[in-house]
Amino acid sequence: MTMQDSRQRGVMFVLCCLVLLLPSCGGQDQQVPQWAQRKVGEAKSNEGVVEFYGKVVDQFGAPVGAAVVKVHVIQFSIMPTAPLTLSLVTDGSGSFGVVPGDKESGTIRGTSLSVTAIGREGYEECRDEWPDMYITYQSNRPNRYHAEKAKPVIYRMRKRGTAETFLLQEVSLKFQVPVADSGKAIGYDFVKRGPIRNVAGPAGDDAARVADLQVKATFNANDATWAVILSPGNPTGGIFVSEQLLYEAPDAGYQPEHALTTAGREPAKATYVYLKSRDPAIYTRIEIEHISANKERFRLSGKSVTNPYGDRNLEQTTGLPYEVTKQLTDEVRTAFGQGRRPTKPDITKLVKEARDRAARGGP
User: Fold this and answer.
1) Alpha carbon of 151 to those of 43, 58, 67, 71, 120: distances in Å?
2) Dist. CA 248–CA 87, nearest whole Å
3) In 3D, which of 126, 136, 134 has the Cα closest to residue 51?
4) How many angstroms separate the CA atoms of 146 and 52, rounded?
5) How far apart are CA 216 and CA 182, in angstroms?
6) Are the C-beta atoms of residues 177 and 298 closer than 8 Å to each other?
7) Contact status, residue 188 vs residue 194, Cβ threshold 8 Å
8) Cβ neighbours of residue 22 under 8 Å, at least 6 residues apart?
9) Based on C-alpha coordinates, what's the Rg of the chain?
10) Cα distance between residue 232 and residue 340, in whole Å
11) Which fold has domain 45-159?
């Protein structure tokens, strides 16, 4: 056999292989293998009819109507694809839902559903209070979701305050009691933003401060726990503890003290302490972010806002220019230094004047 014959036979062999492979490389007559058809069919049949009922309420449990709810529905697809996004609006009772046979969306099938966002002007999401649940419609899952219209899933929002106000803020509030100081009350002045290391016998700068809040932590060596008492600095004040962030301090329900018993590390779930202190009264919201207790010391940390004008509004006006913040802080401290509450300012007017000055480029 010549070299040329060998080359011709090699070419023919390659061509034969290509012809045999052509049917499996595409074309209108191409068919999905049976094993793939089974998997696709199983996945599609595992989708369920999506039915879901929810309700949006504010921090007081009142319904929030006209809120826009974004819902994602995951549907089966061979190729990666974005979820089906629905935009629903709550009715006057705060209710919304994905209803089979709805005249607008029809009947939707999918494997799972999630509420991704809720919005309405004047409100903000309280995601830490949303239900921690996995909503699945897959028939082979033991936790397959069954909707009940009479038992909607509750989603909470926080209604914002409407009045403009200035608040004193403390972003790094800390209380620490070593075992050696067990049983000694320490305090904090929310106007001067300073600690009082010994309420019973203040000295130095502490003597010029007013204890709006007192913290008395006592260590029990028998079981290595701390008993902690929170109380206002004056007998006419009070403490109100809640797991909800309120834009307005409660008008009633204050107690003379609040007890904490803790051992080890507490979770970082926020607890809100609403404090009524001084006479005439001012209001403070303390957000407890972390508690740590061991055989050596007790620690509590968080942040706070204080309304120095005597009303219960605890919603800080946003976007205050620095010069306005400084001016109001100085006015507040001067007034309390003179033994009186400051006059409530016209925030809108002050901000406008500051912006006008900035636009003119002058002081």
Assistant:
1) 29, 18, 19, 18, 23
2) 31
3) 136
4) 8
5) 8
6) yes
7) yes
8) none
9) 32
10) 19
11) Immunoglobulin-like (2.60.40)
E strand or H helix that includes residue 44: helix 34-45
C-alpha distances in Å from residue 116, one per residue of 70, 108, 130, 146, 327: 6, 18, 11, 20, 41
Sequence-separated contacts (24+) of 287-292 with Cβ below 8 Å: 287/245, 290/266, 291/260, 291/262, 291/265, 291/266, 292/265, 292/266
User: Going residue by residue through the chain (363 aa), what tens digit of pLDDT does each one get?
Assistant: 544 454 455 545 544 444 444 444 344 444 545 444 444 455 556 789 999 999 999 988 899 999 999 999 999 876 667 899 999 999 999 999 999 998 878 899 999 999 999 999 888 898 888 998 889 998 888 889 999 999 999 999 988 766 678 999 999 999 999 999 999 999 999 999 999 999 999 988 899 999 999 999 999 999 888 999 999 999 999 999 988 888 889 999 999 999 986 655 554 455 899 999 999 999 999 999 888 888 999 999 999 999 999 999 998 887 889 999 999 999 999 999 999 999 999 988 998 998 888 888 766
To which H or E segment does residue 359 belong? helix 347-360
261: its two tokens: 């018993």
Strand pairing report for 112-119 and 68-74: antiparallel
Q: CA 205 → CA 26, 197, 338, distances in Å?
A: 85, 10, 17
Task: Enumerate the β-bridge partners of residue 313.
Answer: 248
The model scores a pTM over 0.70: no
Distance CA 323, CA 315 (A): 20
| Phi, psi values for residue 185, rounded to 5° | -80, 130
The residue ranges of every structural domain in the chain are 45-159, 169-348
| Coil, strand or helix at 222 | coil
Among 193, 207, 188, 190, residue whose Cα is nearest residue 282: 190
